[in-house]
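During the reporting period the student researcher (J.K.) took over the structure-prediction task from the postdoctoral fellow and processed the backlog of single-chain submissions. One of the processed entries is reproduced below for the supervisory committee.
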Amino acid sequence: MEQEATVLISIEDIHILNPRVRNQIIAEEIRQNIRSVGLKRPITVASRKDVKNGKKYDLVCGQGRLEAFIAAGETTIPAVVREVSEEDAHIMSLVENIARRNGNALELLQSIKYLKSQGYADDAIAAKTNLGKDYIRGIIRLLEQGEEYLINAVEKGRIPLYQALNIASEDDTAVQRALAEAYESGALSGKKLVDAQKIISRRKHYGKSLSSPHREHAKVSAEDLIAAYEKGAKEKKRLLAQSNYIKDVLDYTSIALRQLLKDVHFTNQLKAVGMNEIPQHVTDLLKR
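J.K. obtained the following structure tokens:
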């Protein structure tokens, strides 16, 4: 059986295998909790076979607790020492990061990439990360296609995994049809539909990666400026014509409605169907 022991070790002897940036609010909560009630759970480390740069241990679990001790000026910390290989320690640390990632898609990507590079099958990764076989298979499929932005959207709950897979594998027409069917069936709410449309648009314009590509500023010629001005002028004319059309329709409608409201038979009919109260914005329109 694997030997475990809780000992007090020097903080200077600890090497953080997979450092991650922690939300400062969460970090402060950990520090305050340790100051008030002490360290309830020791950190977990693995003994290093070869001492490098004075570091005797690899941190497996407890980066937040370790940082809280450092912030408090402590030089030692209680730890559970495990005798495992460096590779196993690395994997244990990755699994810990995944379990506590709080929606950080970059950490998920890095962790799964490493496990895949070590030859682990999808089922094995699912077992180690406790995320579910279908979920891991879907994420790996997106990962193999370079769909970092879609993975980030899934991790943040903006779209479900099956929709991300559809977006990655189908053409735009098929994706739009699937979204429309999901909305009509009630499987997709209006807000989720808008989010999905935004994600598709962003991916179409900026690509699959999380970061937007840097665009060099192209030189603008006089012809380009004239073309842009003419395009803007045409758009303004179109909007003005549309505005005038809507105004004419509203004017006609308000005149017709005024006449109808003077008709007793019409008002009685409205009362009969429970429409005896006219909305305020309609009343304001009729007063103009």
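The committee noted the following: The longest helix spans residues 222-261.
J.K. will present the remaining backlog at the next meeting.
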